[in-house]
């Protein structure tokens, strides 16, 4: 078998996003090295290898990244947790992965940040051409803001091309309510990853991980600048599915929605 043209490492491949996008990222000439400590979701094959490695394992991660050309970092705790857990996994784990990428010469990286890094920003802030500064709504949001800061450091200090994707409401199917404005489809997530893997400018970019939803809460300019052109629209999906146009989503609450409520305890678990 000839060597692949491109080898991409995907951490958190057994997670909700990984399971949905891995099939969309397979193509001739590309090898996917899938990393997770959960049971394998995909059978190894000519274009897929499975690696049971924790992102806390610096040596193991470096071994998986050796010879790769791109990194998609999806692994981490995906909801609010005690500070110590988020520090260990989301912040220290991201540092471990980026440091391994630096040491092995992997200079194209996409980091799975979150809308919760800016959860206390008003909806209007999302319409600015430049994504707003962090205003996290939880410790989880703080961990994603720290992820973005690490991505910025590794771009500026080491010349890596890094995309911090502020993922909004990722689901297989478009929801209703605020989700009609915040939906990120699997297809558009795959398009965002492809844009990140093609980037080669040695800079850090914060991009909304959102589809081209008709409510238009989010400026798509930062995505366009890196070649990300989302194609899906939650409102169009809802009309086709339900036969009626959905109501306008409520834009009064901050971007983080219920995560900003007093009833949503900082450091709590769900």
Automatic annotation (TrEMBL):
Q: Where is the NAD-dependent epimerase/dehydratase domain?
A: 8-170
Highest taxon above the source species: Bacteria
According to the record, the residues making up region (Disordered) are 244-270
Q: What InterPro entries does the database record attribute to this sequence?
A: Epimerase_deHydtase, Lipid_A_modif_metabolic_enz, NAD(P)-bd_dom_sf
Organism encoding this protein: Agromyces ramosus
Pfam families in alphabetical order: Epimerase
Q: What is this protein called?
A: Nucleoside-diphosphate-sugar epimerase
């Amino acid at each position: 078998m000839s060597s692949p043209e491109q080898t991409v490492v995907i951490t958190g491949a057994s997670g909700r996003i990984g399971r949905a996008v891995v099939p969309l990222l397979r193509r001739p000439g590309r090898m996917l090295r899938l990393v997770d400590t959960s049971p394998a979701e995909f059978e190894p094959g000519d274009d897929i290898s499975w690696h049971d490695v924790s992102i806390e394992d610096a040596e193991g991660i470096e071994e998986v990244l050796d010879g790769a050309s791109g990194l998609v970092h999806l692994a981490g705790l995906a909801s609010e947790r005690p500070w110590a857990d988020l520090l260990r996994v989301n912040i220290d784990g991201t540092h471990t992965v980026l440091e391994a990428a630096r040491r092995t010469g992997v200079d194209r990286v996409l980091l799975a940040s979150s809308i919760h890094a800016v959860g206390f920003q008003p909806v209007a802030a999302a319409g600015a051409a430049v994504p707003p500064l962090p205003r996290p709504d939880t410790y989880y949001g703080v961990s994603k803001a720290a992820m973005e800061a690490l991505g910025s450091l590794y771009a500026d200090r080491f010349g890596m091309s890094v995309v911090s994707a502020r993922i909004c409401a990722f689901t297989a199917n478009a929801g209703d309510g605020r989700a009609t404005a915040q939906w990120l489809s699997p297809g558009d997530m795959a398009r965002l990853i492809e844009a990140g893997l093609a980037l080669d400018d040695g800079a850090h970019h914060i991009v909304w991980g959102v589809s081209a939803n008709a409510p238009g809460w989010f400026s798509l300019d930062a995505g366009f600048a890196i070649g990300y052109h989302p194609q899906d629209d939650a409102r169009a999906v809802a009309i086709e599915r339900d036969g009626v146009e959905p109501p306008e989503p409520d834009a009064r609450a901050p971007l983080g929605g219920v995560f900003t409520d007093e009833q949503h305890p900082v450091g709590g678990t769900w």
